[in-house]
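Late entry, evening session. Most of the bench is empty. Finally got around to the prediction I had been postponing all week. Sequence below, unchanged from the version circulated by S.P.
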Amino acid sequence: MRTVTGSADALAIYQEYEDLVRGAGSPLADQFAPPHPDPVGAFSTAFPGLDLPDELAAWWAWHDGITQSLGIGAPIGGSNMLFRSMAQTIDLRRMELDIAEEAAEPPDITAELIWPHTWIPVLATQDSTFAIELAPRGRGTVLFRDRREMGRNAPTAAQSWPVVVQWWSTLLRIGATRWDPTALRHGRWVTDEKMVPDELKGNPLAYSPHPSRYAPQFHPLFPY
């Protein structure tokens, strides 16, 4: 797996993934939005005191989301999570923080335990979220949060966002993940679990296993 040392390396990994998406015949390849001109500035303006890791800024500098909806949304990667623009991501983060404030029951259950203020949601559905840690400790790590549990229980799923994108590329390259134009209304990614390498089996960031087949570290720890 390629080592990432900055935004240029990250962009190369994202572009490699785009090339594989195009080769797989997915219409998603023609619906990526243009790059965001300044994702770091947009995020720091929205949330003063926080800034994006280089590889995450490169994510929206690669493409600022999707130009139109495909079925359940913009199903990016074998995980079929929704690819949002920077503006949509900022809105989603504000929503998560608001929900955490409303759900908090201090002093035992604080908003920070439900959704840490140092998180940014990168991809999400109504069931789960891939979040990135922005704090100096653990900066850039990817967490998997099941909607049924608090943020404090979310496991670290990858050491950086490009690692996740490389998982998608690996599964496309070996033919484990493919685009099925007949699935749902506009098609979606489907993965043959028999072809998934052992180290990725049951990993909901790499593809879409049924929750009953999640690897043990991704099982939700609920109730809180």
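Two things to note before I forget:
Residues 43 and 90 are 7 Å apart (CA to CA).
The radius of gyration is 17 Å.
Will write this up properly tomorrow.
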